[in-house]
Amino acid sequence: MSMRLSPFSSSARGRRRGVFALAALGCAATLAGAPARAEDTDKTFATFKEDAFGARPIEADSPLVILDAPRRAEDAAVVPIDVQVRLPDNDPRSIAKVTLIVDENPSPVAATFALGQKRQEFGLSTRLRVNAYSSVRAVVETDDGKLHMAARFVKASGGCSAPALKDEDQALAHLGEMKFRRVTEKASEKPSEANAGMSQAQLMIRHPNFSGLQMDPISRTYVPARFVNHIVVKQGEETVFTMDGGISLSEDPAISFTYPAGKGGVTVAASDTEGVQFSGALDQKKPGS
Questions:
Q1: Does 10-49+56-281 carry CATH code 3.40.50.300?
Q2: Considering the chain, what percentage of its residues have pLDDT values greater than 90?
Q3: Residue 255: closest CA among 220, 224, 280
């Protein structure tokens, strides 16, 4: 595994301090209100759905998308979610994008994964911050522009403003360190002609992913936002996915994903909001070997 870090930009942090102070005020207002009592937050989703997806209709409870998330989270700052997308056999379409949304977060769009390789199936697991009782959604776009959605209601609160597990100096000292390994290899239960077998990898990046909504316990000021906002994973010359992320990804982002077996080595290049870049290559050893 190779890794590359550019110098930490203190000047950029200063420029963002004022911007994210305003975001922090918005979070304080959110926390002051009572969590949603309904078992969905569809009305909240409707307020930003058009901004995120335009006027296109979205198929709710789509059979193409399976989303798993805890009904009540143990830790609102680290809520595990799992998404499985599969198109029917002989379907001419492919999966274009997977967008993860937390309706009641100050920044609802957690991450968007744009897929390459003309994929007809895709598995994704990660960890999100959940700020208030909220529906968590996976919206899948197929290459014909159609939108398909699954949602789960999660009872959690305070995830965006929860203190970081590490202090700022410690977190920045290990910024960008990666673990990138193959988890398992499995044949598809009902493999399509295009996806005869799949491998699974896990990518973990050491990064505080400061949300801009966390308070320094000593200075009582908000820690400026700084988070991993772009990831590119490639298999040989082909793009497996690109990810554009926001403050709703948890501290030390962890992403597990499936990719076609036997099509070459897998590499990752990532960057954060300060422009720091990190890169690595998949450890091809099987677990336990």
A1: no
A2: 68
A3: 280
